[in-house]
Amino acid sequence: MRKRAITDVTKFIFISDLPEKADVILIPGTSKSAITERAAELYRDGYAPYVLPSGMYSSSLGRFASENIDNPRYMGEYKTDFDYCRHILMENGVSESAILREDKATNSMENAMFSAQVLRELGITVKRAILCCQAFHARRAFLSYSCHFPGVELLVVPTDTQEISASDWYKTEKGFRQVMGEVAKCGKYFMDKQKELAGGKI
Q: Alpha-carbon distance 75 to 73, whole Å?
């Protein structure tokens, strides 16, 4: 029973798709450089013409978490998650003209909502999008973007971060708490989103 419980939680939280040609690559706000590097790699490989990193900073912190920068290569002063991600994208071969701006979001749902708004205002039609996020954040990110990208095929291309992966998250207290926290947040975030989720492709 314990093995099945771990397997079921893993399948729910750690969703992953193979990348396909898309209209845009989406990045929820993050200080984890590997996620943005992965997005840059997908752009260089021709999977999408645009990359849209989203985020001001965490509402709970009230500023960009510069102490969480995890790669000395990208040390610097940044005002927003967007600024940080843009710097990494450009350092990894993404044309500045291909980087779309969203720098107001303070949580996952706002990442999705404001990103959709940016694309509408720019007149960019999105039928398929690639979503780059932390692996343990994959389900919540997917559900958040599903609420605001109805009818769009969302492909989740996650990256393992913070030493938490689908294969061993339950073996450490940190991994266990992080993943089970995501299970709880999925219920809390989407309790009142029946209409939005029912209208999108889940």
A: 6
Residue 93 has a CB neighbour count (10 Å cut-off) of 10
CATH number for the segment(s) 2-198: 3.40.50.620
Q: What would the pLDDT profile of 41-94 be if each residue is shown by its tens digit?
A: 999 999 999 999 999 988 778 888 888 889 999 998 899 999 999 999 999 999
Amino acid letter, residue 103:
D
What pLDDT sits at residue 65? 83
Range list of β-strands (E), 128-194: 128-131, 153-156
In terms of C-beta density within 10 A (0-12 exposed, 13-18 middle, 19 or more buried), how is residue 130 classed?
buried
CB atoms within 10 A of CB 15: 19
3-state secondary structure of 197: helix
Helix (H, G, I), strand (E, B) or coil at 159: strand
> Which residue is listed with tokens 């590097």?
37
Residue 168 DSSP label: T
| Residue with token string 């967007």 | 82
Q: What are phi and psi of 39, to 5 degrees?
A: -60, -40
Name the residue among 146, 158, 68 with its Cα closest to residue 109. Answer: 146
pLDDT digits (tens, 9 = 90+) for 137-171: 999 999 999 999 999 999 999 999 999 999 999 99
Work out whether the CA dihedral 35, 36, 40, 42 comes out positive or negative. positive
Domain boundaries defined on the chain: 2-198
